[in-house]
Amino acid sequence: xxxxxxxxxxxxxxxxxxGVRVGVCLHVTTETANLVxxxxxxxxxxxxxxxNPLDTQDDVAAALxxxxxxxxxxxxxxxxxxxxxxxxxxxxxxPQLTMDDGADLVSRVHxxxxxxxxxxxxxxxxxxxxxxxxxxxEAQGKLGFPIVAVNEAQTKHLFDNRYGTGQSVLDGILRAxxxxxxxxxxxVFGYGWCGQGIALxxxxxxxxxxxxxxxxxxxxxxxxxxxEVTRGALAAARADVLIAATGGRDVIGAEHYxxxxxxxxxCNAGHFDVELDLPSLYERAAERRExxxxxxxxxxxxxxRVHLLARGRVVNLAAAExxxxxxxxxxxxxxxxxxxxxxRSAGALEPxxxxxxxxxxxxxxxLKLASLGVEIDTLTDAQRDYLTSWEIGT
Length: 394
What we know:
By secondary structure, the protein is an alpha/beta fold. It is 45% helix and 18% strand. Strands 9-8-7-10-11-14-13-12 form an eight-stranded mixed sheet.
């Protein structure tokens, strides 16, 4: 993670987060550990909990405590009561800055710990699902402090969501099932940045990809990208693998389950397991059993077998290792620089969802290119003047 490393080296000298209490709710992985190390190098006091009950790497959590002085509240496979206890433990440190992946930390502050609102100077949000929740909070006029939507940075969604998630979701499916994708029908529900990446990688593995969408622009984009586009229930009747990647809820539900073919595989690439209507799936099961690690088989009354991966949790983290470090380098560089930006701008930003400043986005891309040994051109003064003027025409 060379970009994050370069930021960490600068942070260690400049200490832009000196004394700042940072509450972090992210996937507890090796990549997140590098982000936490960077925040600590910048002077922050970090308390970390997991953004998903199944994603914690326990050895990483232990190393962050033993070797780097972070406060960590996370256990792989924790139940939901423990999950929220860990969020409360992070909030007990009275963070001045929050980092979220799914907005559970911020949601808890606004619903149960409102006394903390006056102490928090800002927060960051990593994923689409979290940004959706935060924009809803903003729309109701209830957002209590500024949030930088890291997910909306070009160096995040163009690379992490499309290339990282595209690869890691297929990695999770293949690790869990060991199935051959070539010749299979894969239905991708949602054609946002993550859905685009998944569809592209599935196509590259030889699958016939069907895209299901509710947004007409995204559906048209999928069609012009060469994918079949149809309604979800029609796709479910043919699909060998169904993947939800929308940030919404009940994306795959009762009407799809009733249409599924025998042996179909269900999985979720979104942050929350609500993308799959799991209660409806459970209701239809006459029998259920684990047939492989991360693969639960449901036998319907008519004899059809349906396979659910990773209990409906985000499959690339629950059944694999998540996005590669080379991609998370960009995402977590955004997190580190957004944290620095929020601290430097304390009191100056409105309590709403903000984009990552364009200059930070460009700096991260520049650092990544440099780490890859790639050189690009620069504009001449004349070119720059032309692009910033209105007088010069044909």
